[in-house]
Amino acid sequence: MAGSKKIVVLVSGRGSNLQALIDAHGAGKIRSRVIAVVSNKPGVFALERAGQAGIATLVVPSKGVAKAEYDRTLLQTVSDLDPDLVVLAGYMKILDAGFVRAFFGRLINIHPSLLPAFPGLDAQRQALEAGALLTGCTVHFVDEGCDTGPVILQNSIAIEPNDTVESLSARLLPVEHATLVEAVRLIEDDKVIAPGKQTLVLK
Ligand code: GRF
């Protein structure tokens, strides 16, 4: 059913993509709204951003906790929030298969490369070291692999000869924000026919 989605955002750090969703809702660009932010790390800036926006924050600590226990607590915590859409935005842990199965088709990630190129950590560095002329970002459904799920939306930028990881990341970040917001808009408008091996996006 098209319409506003209740979004839960999973984070581990800075939260600029979270901010993009908060701002897009505030500006009326998306109807969907972030109802809660869940972090596996206490004290990260994403939690502060959520707090400033009056959004509920929850910390499910992963450090020093057995993986099975963490996975169980995270699944319970997010399920209790009853989201329509779960967004991974700088969430730095691999979700376990049970979580992915529970939310498959309503679980998306933003990744800073044109997948399937450069999955995993340090995607901007990987693109530079490979000598790519283009890179970009991908919003995709999350499956049980690492950055392997069906692609929803991608946008590219050129890599300049003098680019560093920092300069490239800084230029890519606003493109990430716009791509994530656009993906949520397409999903709330029921324009993403999802998800098989390929995703059909009606524009
Ligand atoms: C972004 O580059 C995102 O693509 C990647 O992690 C970074 C998170 O940045 N998955 P932020 O926390 O949203 O500012």
Query: H/E element string?
Result: EHEHEHEHEHEEHEE
Beta percentage is 15-25%
User: What Rg, in angstroms, do the CA atoms define?
Assistant: 16 Å
- Order of strands, main sheet, comes to 3-2-1-4-5-6-7
Distance between the termini: 17 Å
Low-confidence stretches: none
| Shape estimate | globular
Mean pLDDT: 95
The distinct ligands, each listed once, are: 5-O-phosphono-beta-D-ribofuranosylamine
Count of runs of 4 or more consecutive helical residues: 6
The quaternary organization reads as: single chain
Q: Which percent bin holds the helix content?
A: 25-40%
The major β-sheet equals: 7 strands, mixed
- Derived structural class: alpha/beta
- Tally of extended strands? 9
List keywords for this structure.
203 residues; alpha/beta; 7-stranded mixed beta sheet; two-stranded antiparallel sheet; 35% helix; binds 5-O-phosphono-beta-D-ribofuranosylamine
Characterization of this structure:
The chain has 203 residues and is of the alpha/beta class. It has 6 helices and 9 strands, in the order E-H-E-H-E-H-E-H-E-H-E-E-H-E-E. The strands form 2 sheets. A 7-stranded mixed sheet has the order 3-2-1-4-5-6-7, sandwiched between helices. Strands 8-9 form a two-stranded antiparallel ribbon. Helix 2 links the parallel strand 2 and strand 3. Helix 1 packs across helix 6. The structure holds 5-O-phosphono-beta-D-ribofuranosylamine. 5-O-phosphono-beta-D-ribofuranosylamine (GRF) binds next to helix 1 and strand 5. 5-O-phosphono-beta-D-ribofuranosylamine binds next to helix 1 and strand 5.
